[in-house]
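Think of the structure tokens as a kind of shorthand, similar to the way a musician reads notation: each symbol stands for something richer, in this case the local conformation of the backbone. In the example below we present two proteins back to back. Begin with the first one, reading the sequence and then the tokens, and try to describe in your own words what changes along the chain.
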Amino acid sequence: MGETFYIFKSGELKRKDDNIILKSLEGETKNLKVEMMDELYLFGEVSLNTKVLNYLSQNNVTMHIFNYYGFYSGTYCPRDRNVSGFMLINQVKAYDNPNKRIDIAREIVNTAYFNIYRNLRYYNSRGIELSEQMASIQRIARNLEFAENVQELMGIEGSIRRTYYTAWNDIVRQEINFQKRTRRPPDNMINTLISFINSLVYTTTLSEIYKTQLNPTISYLHEPGTKRFSLCLDIAEVFKPLIADRMIFSILNKNIITEKDFEKESEGLYLKEEGKKKILREYDARLSKTIMHRDLGREVSYRYLIRLECYKLIKDLIGEQDYQGFKIWW
């Protein structure tokens, strides 16, 4: 598996022979070693041309672009080498079948609920009183089996998340007044971290979907639409409690990220460059973390768990095995 490269410096990307070179505004040059690269994240103001894009495509490198504030702007995907008309037809059939769609969507929400509850149980077992939120989430989740459409499932998922968020001030040991989820602009440290790290999970999920025959625009829980990869949102729901939420608790409770890593502007609170770099180091380490997979009987990384989720969905779509989401057991 290739490496992930992050670029913060502003400058210009150029192809030179069999390499891509970053030339910063200060005149520094860096060889990006494309042959070792799997993903490229751009956070700085970088100019490039079609020679660079063509070379990234030849080497199967996906490029994700973020703006100055750390908000996700878009993704450049190479030409799809795993295209499958058969899989596309089956994805669309499952979406058009109301019963099949709601079965998949229900399993996604149920798995997300289970993983959220697991996080609360973990901290409750360590002396943080969260029994009220745990009981409330269980009550809400009982409605999942009675939901008659995807809109009802989305409403239940939203209620579970809102209740879950009421526990975060107790879990996080820093003094942060986190009252509710706000996105643009984020108004406190936790909201800023959720927005930034969730976008990393979405882009990682897109990269893993791209390595399979799934079409990232056809989804089951989130409504497919124009100009977005909605299947990433579906699959990311399963992994946000494990990857994003647990990471936020860790970096705040260990004081890896503090208020010094943020800057206040009229529109909201944003991460400084050094804060983003700290998070990306932690994020890479988390994706590389391995567990002994119960079914495969071998160690797999958190990143590979996302791809395995895609494969499980494929098996369902082609009629081999009903989809069952990945549930945290630790």
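Once you have a description of the first chain, move to the second and do the same.
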Amino acid sequence: MTNTDIPNLSDAELKEEAKKLKSFSLQNSIFIGFLMGIIFYSFAKNTWGLFTLIPLYFIYKLIHSPKSKRLKEIELTIKERSL
């Protein structure tokens, strides 16, 4: 399914797709929290390097993933339809 298909979805399909992406969002948030914990541990031990940069890269990739953008578009469509 592409981003252009979102306005063509029925109300039930739109809610189902939002439900699927919400669980992805929760998993994403937990993983980002874990990676932030690694970064804080690295700061506490005064170590800069690969142990700090790798989690930062993964956090960036998780925030800018296509699923995150799709979830935002679906939530906007749900708001427009007042569901």
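Compare your description with these statements about the second chain. The chain has one domain: 10-81.
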